[in-house]
Design goal:
mainly alpha; about 150 residues; Four Helix Bundle (Hemerythrin (Met), subunit A)
Length: about 150
């Protein structure tokens, strides 16, 4: 075998090996999750993907996609509370115990997210790019705020 073919083969083996161990972080985070914990982790993963699709749609000026994806987020916000029953914090959950110790504050954070997502829908229907962009920032800010308070990093 020539040195060039050997190098190419070695590179392909290395690349295949690397790709096989480069699963998305969420795949590892969900490993071992069961029941309601897995269900809510899956919902949060879906909401993260929806947020990315919204960001892409904003760059294209596609308000129809912004509205559709944000409607999913509003729906998730309105059912989220039910995905956090007491004693549902077993590993690999990333939820902090503060959720249950500060339940009213947690529910308030969910409501802030719901309000911000609904405002994004309203602004997208108005088709003012500046307002839509600002509403998107406010919505993602509400996500980050809740994560800082109630999610383990």
């Amino acid at each position: 075998m020539s040195k060039l073919k050997l190098k190419a083969t070695a590179f392909c083996v290395f690349a295949a090996f690397t790709v096989s161990f480069s699963s998305p972080p969420s795949a590892f985070a969900h490993k071992g999750a069961m029941g309601i914990v897995k269900e809510r982790m899956d919902k949060f993963e879906a909401s993260e993907k929806a947020t990315k699709r919204i960001k892409q749609a904003l760059s294209r000026g596609d308000t129809a996609v912004v509205i559709a994806e944000t409607e999913f987020l509003v729906s998730w916000a309105r059912e989220m509370e039910g995905f956090f029953p007491e004693n549902s914090n077993q590993p690999p959950s990333e939820a902090k115990d503060d959720i249950w110790r500060q339940w009213d504050k947690f529910v308030g954070a969910i409501q802030s997210f719901d309000n911000a997502a609904q405002a994004l829908i309203d602004d997208a229907r108005g088709e003012d790019p500046r307002a839509i962009g600002q509403a998107f920032k406010e919505m993602t800010k509400s996500c980050k705020s809740c994560h800082r308070q109630f999610r383990e990093d």
